[in-house]
Amino acid sequence: MKLNYTKSLRKMEDILKIWGRRYLTLYGKVTVLNTFVISQLVYLLSVLPSPSKAMLTQIEKMIFDFVWCNKPDKVKRGVMKLSKYDGGMSIPDIGIKNDSLKIAWVQRIMKGNNSWNIMIQKYVPVNLDILWHLNVNLADMTIMIARMPNQFMKEVLMGWSRYNFHNPTNIHKIRNQVIWFNSHVRVDNCTIFLRALYAANIMYVHQFFDERGDILSLPNFQLKYGIQINFLTYYSVLSAIPQRWKVEIKEHHTIVDVPFIHMPLSNLERKDHVCKVVYGDLIQQAYGGTIATGFRKWNDWLPGGLQMEVWQYGFRIMYTTLQYTKTLLVQFKILHFITATRAKLFLWDIVDDDLCSFCNEAIETLPHLLIECEAVKLFWNDLKHWLFLKSGILFQPTVSEIIIGFQNPDLMFNAVYLLAKRYLCRCSTAQEFPSIRIFKIFLKDFLTVEENIALKNNKLNTFINIWDTIWPYQD
């Protein structure tokens, strides 16, 4: 097994060396990773037990060394692994990719009788139809399947427990929790399983309550289900049910139970793209709460602060506005506060001073480059006036809107401001004073290319609908 992974690892290293010699944007590198690199492992991860943690760590290092050209990470890895609309780049997480490929096997196992079903059933104490509904965490699942000899299938079940384990958030989920092996229902810090009750088809939390939401007394429980159970055993089960669940069931006893399928199970009922959906869910679970450094810095600098939803919406704006990767990359770096301003270049001993390329008075930080410099303020004012002459629409963009984007104006305004920010960064690099006249030439060159692409793809009408207010670029 190790030989299989080692061979693929060498091939991945060779591919990364070849592509590493080319000047690729971050978007190009992500394409290479997902198309040529990770694909070397997909089949192996789908049919073999997982490689060692050391190997997974090595692969992760290879990926991010390639992304950042063997330099320190500029954006948190957790953020980079998120989708592009959440502020990331969809950099593959090899550990989660491994889990999602293993979890996809659950769909095959659920389809009917096969050798895997027979083997699993031999080592788990509940029927397979119930197994996939158990709300059991990784630690408890590991204990449950400790005797299972097949390492691959153990990893499938352990991956499933990571994906499926949850804290029930509404009365329907609480009432329909399978009580056996439930990691929320514990006695002496262990999950519970009573074979006699299980055999009597007693499996769900709501079966221990009456129609008023009160806990069934032992005599009433025995009468209702026709089963004899020890007093201490019965009340130990009741005491294991979380108090919050008992309160919820009592307060919502008039609620009619509705059929529902927990999201992970419903995802497995899909006919296609199961692995992709599971991967996306696991990435969100693992990194969805990660606070990007770029968001924190803009939140500290912008008057009145910045909401995370607004910051993330800035990525949605840019991706729905343009598909020109060089401009998108400029905005990506702005939102993540990683643009190489002269302040940073001076810190890295690349330039002789950190003064602004335009005013030559203040330190050129990113907020100064885009907002604070008097030359930039003049440029934004000239751009606003020119757009008013072209469109007849006069608006006063806020500082936040200049940085993040406009939520209401049409695509043309957002596109122009995205290109304007790229133009300002270009002027800073070339140490040229920003001019609305030069920007209009810059915009014209961009539109000429976009028009040719639209003609080639039979999308000229779409192009005209976006740019008709300033086309044909005549002043």
List keywords for this structure.
mainly alpha; 475 residues; 60% helix; elongated; single chain
Short description:
By secondary structure, the protein is an all-alpha fold. The protein is 60% helix and 1% strand.
Share in helix: 55-70%
**Based on helices, strands and strand pairing, what is the structural class?**
mainly alpha
Low-pLDDT ranges: none
Strand content: under 5%
Largest sheet: 2 strands, antiparallel
Q: Give the overall form.
A: elongated
Rg, rounded, reads 29 Å
Assembly state (oligomeric)? single chain
Please report the distance between the alpha carbons of the first and last residues: 68 Å
Give the strand line-up of the largest sheet.
1-2
User: What is the ordering of alpha helices and beta strands?
Assistant: HHHHHHHHHHHEEHHHHHHHHHHHHHHHH
Overall pLDDT: 91
Total number of beta strands: 2
Number of helices: 27
Whole-number total of structural domains: 3
Topology, please?
Blueprint: H1 2-20, H2 26-37, H3 39-47, H4 53-67, H5 77-80, H6 94-110, H7 115-123, H8 128-131, H9 138-144, H10 151-164, H11 171-175, E1 186-187, E2 190-191, H12 195-199, H13 218-225, H14 231-240, H15 243-251, H16 263-268, H17 274-287, H18 293-301, H19 308-321, H20 325-335, H21 342-347, H22 366-372, H23 374-391, H24 399-404, H25 411-430, H26 436-456, H27 460-467
Antiparallel strand pairs: 1-2
Q: What do you see in this structure?
A:
- The protein is mainly α and 475 residues long.
- It has three domains: 2-92, no CATH class; 167-261, no CATH class; 293-467, no CATH class.
- The mean pLDDT is 91.
- The protein starts with a helix and ends in an 8-residue tail after the last helix.
- A two-stranded antiparallel ribbon has the order 1-2.
- The chain contains 27 helices and two strands.
